[in-house]
Amino acid sequence: MAFRVFEKGSAPMPSIPSVTIQKRGLISLNDAASELIGNPEAVQFLWDASDRLIALKPVALTAPNAYPVREQAAAKKRDSAKRGAVLIAGSMFTRFIGLDTTQARRWVPEVRDGMLIIDVKQEGQLVIANRNRGKTDTGQTGDGPEADEA
C-alpha cells in the first residue's frame, strides 16, 4: 500500500508559536509567537549567515532599522483581547538573505536572548492557501475528496 500523509497546510494550532514567510517575503506571526517577544510595535531583522538563522528583535517603532508590526485587517475588526496574527513587511530582508519565497512556509520559532529565532536550515512546513487546496500537481482543479474539503 502507498499511504500518503494528508498535509493540512492551513492555519497552525493557535497555542503553538509559528512564523510564516509568505510568498514574496511577507512575514506573519501568530498570536503565540508575537506574545513570546512581548507583542512588539516593531522588530529589527537580524541574520546569522553561518548558522542560517533569522532573528526578530523587538524594538520601538522609532529605533533605527525598525520594521512596524501590523495587525491583519480581519484581526482589527474583532472585538477581542487577543490580537491575532500580525504582519511584517520582510520582502527586502528575504531578498537580502537569498531566501526562496516562491512558496509560503511555516516554522516553529524559539526564543533566545529575547529574540524570536527562525532556523531556515530546516525546510519549514509548506503552507497551502485554501483557494489552492484542490489543485493537483499540474495546477488543475482536483476532482477527488481533497477538492471537496477545500
Structure description:
The protein is an alpha+beta fold and 150 residues long. It has one domain (19-148). Helix content is 15%, strand content 27%. It contains four helices and eleven strands, in the order ββαββββαβαββββα. The chain has helices at 31-36, 73-77, 91-97, 145-148; strands at residues 19-21, 27-29, 42-48, 53-59, 67-68, 70-71, 86-88, 105-107, 110-112, 115-119, 125-126. The strands form two sheets. Strands 6-7-2-1-8-11 form a six-stranded antiparallel β-sheet. Strands 5-3-4-10-9 form a five-stranded antiparallel β-sheet, with no helix packed on it. A hairpin with a 2-residue loop joins strand 9 and strand 10. The longest helix has 7 residues, at 91-97.
Task: Compile the SSE list and pairings.
Blueprint: E1 19-21, E2 27-29, H1 31-36, E3 42-48, E4 53-59, E5 67-68, E6 70-71, H2 73-77, E7 86-88, H3 91-97, E8 105-107, E9 110-112, E10 115-119, E11 125-126, H4 145-148
Order the strands across the largest sheet as they lie in space.
Answer: 6-7-2-1-8-11
Number of H- or I-type helical stretches = 4
Strand % is: 25-35%
Radius of gyration: 17 Å
Report the major sheet: 6 strands, antiparallel
Tell me the overall shape: globular
| Structural class by helix and strand composition | alpha+beta
Give the averaged pLDDT, no decimals.
83
The tally of domains stands at 1
What percent of the residues sit in helical stretches (DSSP H or I)?
10-25%
User: How many strand segments?
Assistant: 11
Low-confidence stretches: 136-150
Give the helices and strands as they follow along the chain: EEHEEEEHEHEEEEH
